[in-house]
Amino acid sequence: MQPRNMPMSGVVDLAAVKAAGEARQKAEETRERNAASGEQGAPAPSSLVIDVDEAGFERDVLERSAEVPVVIDFWAEWCEPCKQLGPILERLAQAYAGRFVLAKVDVDQNQALFQQFGVQGIPAVFAVIAGQALPLFQGAAPEAQIREVLDQLIQAAEERFGIVGAPVDPSAEAEVEQQEPEAPVDPVLAAAEQSLAAGDAEGAAEAYQRALDANPADAEAKLGLARAELIRRVRELDPAAVRKEAADNPGDATAQLRVADLDLSGGHVEDAFGRLVETVRRGAGDDRNAARVRLLELFEVVGPEDPRVVAARSALARVLF
Question: Which of 8, 52, 82, 257 is catalytic?
C-alpha cells in the first residue's frame, strides 16, 4: 500500500515567523530549566521508542517536543499495514540515535487522541515540534521514503525551532537487554507470526488453526487466525470497485461483507460493524447468517474487550432478538 502523503509544507506553516519565535523561546526555556535541575534533554536508548497514552501525552510528547522532534505512530494490533510500518519506524528511531523520538499510540486504547489528531485511517504518522503538531503521512511506506520525510522533519526542527535532539548510543543498553530473560515462545504461534510477517496469510492461517486444534481456548491463536483470514479476504480486492458494487446493490450481502472487511482493515472499525449489523437486520436466511458470522469474526480481530465490540454486540443482539 502506498502512503497518502501529507505534504511537508505543513512544516512551513508551523514555522511562520511568530509561531517559530515563540516555539524557539519555549524550547530554550525548557532546556534551561532542565540544565538547572540537572536533567538531560537527550533521550536514553531505551526511550527512543515509547508507548504513549492519553494520561501521559502532555509529559511524554508535548513537553518532550521542546527538546527533540517527536514522531507519533498511530497503530492497532489488528492493523496489518501497521505491523509492516511499525518495525521500520522503530528501527529508524534507533538508527537516528536521538534526533527524534518515536511515540506509539494504540488507537484502540486511546480514542481521544485518535480523534484529536483527526486521524482518518491507520497507520498514520504525525510529528510534534515544540508543542505544535503536523501530519507526515498515512499508510505503510518504504524505508527510503520514510527517511526522506524524517530528514525534512529534523532539518525543519533545527532551522526553525532550534531543536536538534541529542545523540545517544543505541548499543549502550545492549548488554543489559541481553541479560533479560525471555518468555517461552510457542513454536507453532511463532511460525504463524513469521508467516504473517512474510505476507503468507495462508501459511499463517494453517499454523494458527493447528494451535487452536491443540488448544481451542488459545486466545492468541484465535486472534491470529482472524487476522490472517481478514488479510486473505482483502488483499486481492479493488477497493473502489467493491465500494461501488456495494453502493449500487445495497441488498447484496456479499458486497456488504467485502466493504466491511475493507473498512476494518483501514481502521474504520465502527463503520465495519455498523454495516454488518445493518446487513443482518435487512437480510434473511443464508445472507443473514453470513453477515452475523462475519461480524463475529471481526470481533475477534479487534478484541472482545474493546468498547466498540461491546457496543456492536448489543446492536447485533437487538436485531437478532
Answer: 82
- DSSP-based helix, strand, coil % in the chain, nearest 5: 60, 10, 30
Residue 79 is among the residues annotated as catalytic for this protein? yes
Is residue 306 among the annotated active site residues? no
Shared domain for 150 and 219, answered yes or no, is: no
> Which CATH number goes with the domain that contains 318?
1.25.40.10
Q: Which three cell numbers stand for residue 226?
A: 482472524
Q: Are residues 38 and 145 in the same domain?
A: yes
Digit-coded pLDDT (tens) for 64-109: 888 899 999 999 988 888 988 999 999 999 988 889 999 999 998 8
For 119-144, write each residue's pLDDT tens digit. 888 899 999 988 888 899 988 888 88
Domain limits for position 65: 4-175
Number of Cβ within 10 Å of residue 248's Cβ equals: 9
Whole-prediction pTM: 0.52
Q: Catalytic pick from 8, 15, 49, 79? A: 79
